[in-house]
Design goal:
The protein is mainly alpha-helical. It is built from 13 helices and 6 strands.
Length: 282
């Protein structure tokens, strides 16, 4: 059993608060981790094995993000600490996200990423090491039970699960895209429910699914409660909330909060459709 030491008199509610960026108390540990995964060994002129910054990793990152000014010389001459100063917290976390993706291809990736997740968790970071759609990345930290539920739905929902995984990553990943997250959330629900609700309509959308379910008036969960039809209302809320699907004066990109809410709405809807829990019931 693992226990965690707390300072005498510490308010555990305060310790549970998640912190953005790179808090000062976590900085040195994070820099140490980045140093450990960005070094390479070489033989000096006396044939002694030494370590140095692996500049090719930074070059690959800079190419991937199209960075206009290279920091290779800073990294090579002064190391990770100066790289952090030059990048600033937000871009440095982008670099960490890139390293997470790169490290997963190594034989000892589970152990290395486990060390990173431990220091992020212990430091109260709002970021964690997640896995979505087959690759590791930094993601916003959410309750473990929610993550477990999402993982189960993704694994058991086929193409709808793949779309849901993409939606989740777009919402909670290090470089969020609220519009893509919302759009993929709707597509995941459409993929899960279109053939169930409207099997004869090859052009079914979430809007037409909602129209059909409301017209039929008997789409419910297998519950005796009066609100057993609440999934239909949830689907309608998801659909109406996507203002970015309108052109002209009605167009508005969703906010990050709206995108996250849309993804979390889509998770149970995908599960209910694919499992048959949501069905027509007299």
């Amino acid at each position: 059993m693992t226990t965690r030491w707390y300072k005498r008199g510490a308010n555990q509610a305060d310790l549970a608060v998640l912190h953005p960026g790179v808090p000062e108390w976590m900085k040195m540990q994070l820099l140490t981790w980045v140093t450990s995964v960005t070094q390479e060994s070489y033989l000096d002129e006396w044939v002694n094995r030494r370590m140095r910054p692996n500049v090719s990793i930074l070059m690959d990152y800079e190419t991937a993000v199209r960075r206009p000014e290279s920091l290779v010389s800073v990294f090579r001459d002064f190391g990770v600490s100066s790289l952090f100063t030059s990048m600033g917290q937000d871009e440095f976390l982008d670099f960490v996200d890139f390293l997470v993706f790169t490290v997963q291809q190594q034989p000892n990736s589970a152990q290395v990423l486990g060390v990173l997740e431990m220091l992020l968790s212990d430091g109260g970071s709002e970021w964690c090491v997640g896995t979505r759609d087959g690759f590791a990345s930094l993601e916003k930290r959410v309750p473990e039970g929610v993550v477990a539920a999402v993982d189960d739905v993704v694994a058991l929902s086929g193409e709808a699960g793949r779309l849901l995984a993409e939606s989740w990553h777009a919402a909670f990943g290090k470089s969020p895209d609220a519009e893509e997250a919302y759009e993929k959330a709707i597509k995941a629900v459409e993929e899960a429910g279109a053939r169930v609700v409207s099997p004869n309509n090859s052009k079914t959308t979430l809007g037409t699914m909602i129209r059909d379910m409301k017209a039929q008036k008997d789409w419910k969960l297998d519950l005796s409660a009066q609100d057993a039809d609440v999934p239909v209302k949830m689907a309608e809320a998801l659909w109406i909330g996507q203002e970015s699907r309108h052109g002209g004066n009605g167009y508005r990109k969703p906010s990050q909060t709206e995108a996250e809410a849309a993804v979390l709405l889509a998770v149970p809807l995908v599960q209910w459709f694919t499992s048959g829990a949501l069905a027509r019931r007299n």
